[in-house]
Design brief:
Elements lengths: L8 E5 L9 H9 L4 E5 L13 H19 L6 E6 L4 H7 L4 H20 L5 E5 L7 H21 L3 E4 L7 H9 L7 E6 L7 E5 L2 H10 L4 E3 L17 H11 L3 H16 L9
Parallel strand pairs: 1-2, 2-3, 3-4, 4-5, 5-6, 6-7, 7-8
Helix pairs in contact: 1-2, 2-4, 3-4, 4-5
Length: about 280
Amino acid sequence: MTDVDTPILDDHLHLDPVNGRGAEAAAEFAEAGGTHLLVLNKPSWHLVDEVGTEEAFRETFEITCGVTAAASDRLPGRAWPVLGVHPALISQLVDSGHDPEEARDVMQMGLDVAAEFVAEGPALAIKSGRPHYDVTDAVWDASNEVMRHAFELGAETGCAVQLHTEGGEDFADVAEWAGERGLPREQVVKHYAGGRVEGPIPSVISNRDDLETAAESGEPFLMETDFLDDPDRPGAVLGPKTVPKRVRWMREQGYEDAVRTAHVDTPARVYGIDTRSTLD
């Protein structure tokens, strides 16, 4: 049973109503004790026929907002959409004949559309980043320009930016780029983080070792599964029950303060959401 004083938030998962289970996966999360979700759009090529057009971005975001609303109906708390452009799109665009600068412009346009969804209310935050695999210097530079544009949009709309990037712990320079554009470090989130990150707020992939590192640090952090809702890989990356299960484990280990940090204090600090008042 969920402790109503300490909600349980999965900071990053995907719900795919086109190919996957959609809101049914949110119901599984709730049955395990979860209360709140941040639902990230899958890359547009998983959901719509076109790639890299304004219409494709809008349709992708509308699909994600729809499944997020359906997920909210299954939760004792609520779900919010986080919308943006997957950094791997730049490789698809370059491979299809665009130069890196053209690909950058397409991706920045997609982020502009995502920011509209934030400004108008359905979405909570923006997603951006850079490839987590080897690319040319030109693609890397263009990707960093895309990410910096996301920071500008976050500052303009007053929202957080989740980042999909390479692995590692030191992203102090990325947080500095955000600050230079008016977005505070505490509104920059490193998705799929280990337990320790310098610069952004870590959204820790919910493995026990990484969670223990985060809990022992005493620093703000979030918890996530990066659930893909892919019928070919039903438990990837982690299943929707994982965060509630890990919260129970953390309490058994005596990390009650860290649980409150991850599910109440940090969501309020980063996103401005109150996970307690939004519980039924």
